Amino acid sequence: MPTPNVRVMIAMLLIISLTSAVRGDDAVPNDPPLRWWKGNIHTHSLWSDGNDFPEMIAEWYRSRDYNFLALSDHNIMSEGMRWMKLSAIEKRGGDQVLPKYETRFGGGWVEIRGAGDEREIRLKPLDEFRNLVEDRGKFIMIPGEEITDSVKGKPVHMNATNLTALIQPLSGETVGAAMEANLRAAEDQAKRTGREILVHLNHPNFHYAITAEEIAHVVTERFFEVYNGHPGVNHLGDKDHPSIERMWDIANTIRLGGLEAPVLYGVATDDSHVYHGKQGSRPGRGWVMVQSRYLTPEHLVRAMKAGRFYCSSGVSLTSVEFDATSGNVKLAIDAKPGVQYTTQFIGTKKNFDGTSTPRLDKDGKEINATRLYSADVGAVLATSKELAPSYQLQGDELFVRAVVTSSESPADPSHRDQLQQAWTQPFVPKPTR
Ligand SMILES: [Zn+2]
Ligand SMILES: [Zn+2]
Predict the structure, then answer these.
(1) Which residues are found with C-beta within 5 Å of the ion, ligand 2?
(2) Ligand 1 midpoint to CA 281 (Å)
(3) CA distance 9 to 31
(4) Is 412 exposed, middle or buried (0-12, 13-18, 19+ CB in 10 A)?
């Protein structure tokens, strides 16, 4: 029989252990502080035209310090019973795809049927394999889809992140109408299921299908890819088409300077298809860093809808601060030794020259491309070489954004002369009235 003192101690210990149980643990602390989570929300697997098994792709990202990954195959979600011919898998990814899968997960996991030319491997649904790769508080999978639409031969691709059911591409008379229809379908599903769904427009310069004006006018679309790691997406544009970054500034100038519409946020993604070292769209080139307390799809998507994230192709920021009242922007760069960083603050002022002219072909005929705008649109307002660059908005800007460029190339560049970068979201000054 313990003495009364010992009994009190035991009771106290019990209370302490109960409190710590209630107050969380290392993986999911009670009331955790805001932190950055790294993720890629545009990824392809064998479920559509990628060349690896989804759990192998998840492992690629998980083991490289990513915190979340959305598989976004073309017009399909990784669900249901699906077998794929080994010959088709090898044709796509080479003869090491299956041995690598078996080496990682073992014969007890990999499902094979048939023999000879008829050998088939089962593609596992997300619901089945996520239990193997997810790590609470560290790495989660988010269901996604690349709604792969087209309008009169122009590709209109939109990623939907955190879906529960497939959205069939709805198309339309125009690019804008197709985008709006797909956005409505996602919105309906979000309402019906009570989930946060994020839809972003993919690679607008792929086949030069979508103009900055079209993006600007679909005001229900809040996100587009300012960087996509696929080498075929014309990131820099050409003589008839502006770069993706310039399109971003044009679209936001139209939205904020004329339509009184919400700002368009930028997303960076891999659009990865190729996982075995071959030429093409390899993983690890572009990602988002999202500021959130919890690593759950809902918290991540809500943070992105609030603009609390930045994009990266290699540069890391430890903080991005914007005081909407004072108009002060302050960044802190997570600098690597021996590397130089240049930050440009880019924006459009309210009194910008809004004239634009169409682009013409050699016969003087108007071409279907983003129009030419004055240098006031997306002007470089300041440049800094500091590691804690800051900018004071004057209140006469429609928006100001920052892009940090490193002196280092990425390990695996996706376009010519590429340097590692980070892109903040546009900062919009608070209306004074
Ligand atoms: Zn696409
Ligand atoms: Zn894609």
Answers:
(1) 146, 271
(2) 11
(3) 28
(4) exposed
Task: Measure the CA–CA gap between 314 and 317, rounded to whole angstroms.
Answer: 10
Measure CA 386 to chain center: 27
Q: Tell me: the pLDDT tens digits for 259-280?
A: 999 999 999 999 999 999 889 9
CA–CA dist 426, 284 (Å, integer): 24
DSSP letter assigned to residue 7: H
* Residues 271/280, Cβ–Cβ less than 8 Å: no
Domain holding 368, by residue range, is 35-82+123-423
Q: How many domains does the chain have?
A: 1
How many angstroms separate the CA atoms of 28 and 21, rounded? 11
What's the CA dihedral at 319, 376, 209, 282 to 10 degrees?
-30
Cα 61–Cα 208–Cα 360 angle in degrees, nearest 5: 155
pLDDT of 54 strictly over 80:
yes
Q: What CATH number has the domain bearing residue 337? A: 3.20.20.140
**How many angstroms does the Cα of residue 246 sit away from the middle of ligand 2?**
22
Between CA 128 and CA 58 the distance in angstroms is: 13
**CA 146 / ligand 2 centre spacing (Å):** 6
How many other C-beta atoms can be found within 10 angstroms of the C-beta atom of residue 17? 10
325 located within any domain:
yes
433 in a domain, yes or no?
Answer: no
**CA separation (Å) from 167 to 46, 177, 261, 406?**
19, 16, 26, 39
Residue 373 lies in a domain: yes
Ligand found nearest the CA of 48 = 2
pLDDT (0 to 100) of residue 430: 81
CA 212 to CA 36: how far, in whole Å?
30
Count of CB atoms situated within 10 Å of the CB of 430:
11
The secondary structure of residue 139, as a DSSP letter, is B
88 occurs within a structural domain: no
Question: For residue 157, which ligand has an atom nearest its CA?
Answer: 1
Beta bridge partners of 289: 38, 310
Structure tokens at 307: 């603009």
Distance 159 CA to ligand 1 centre (A): 8
pLDDT at 93 over 90: yes
Average pLDDT, the chain: 95
- Give tens-digit pLDDT for 160-188: 999 999 999 999 999 999 999 999 999 99
Which of 109, 108, 111, 107 lies closest to 120, judged by CA?
Answer: 111
